[in-house]
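**Fold tokens**
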Amino acid sequence: MQTQELKAWQAQWEHDAIQKGRAEGKLQADRARLESLLQKRFGNMLPGIAARIEAAPPTQIDYWYDRLFDASSLAEIFAYE
């Protein structure tokens, strides 16, 4: 019985690790894509903005994506709420 439980735990751990890796990879890709689009739209970014993007959680990245096409400046996108 313990062997079965150990195998089940190991399978769950592997599944969770893969899912976490995929989520982290997606977040890194979203951050890179956001930086690229911002540079194409507004030109070079200040280092502080790049640091904010790098530290932001997925919900914040999504929020900035939503603001990207309506904003007329980087300041509008990254204004503190």
Summary: The longest helix spans residues 2-42. DSSP finds four helices and no strands in the chain.
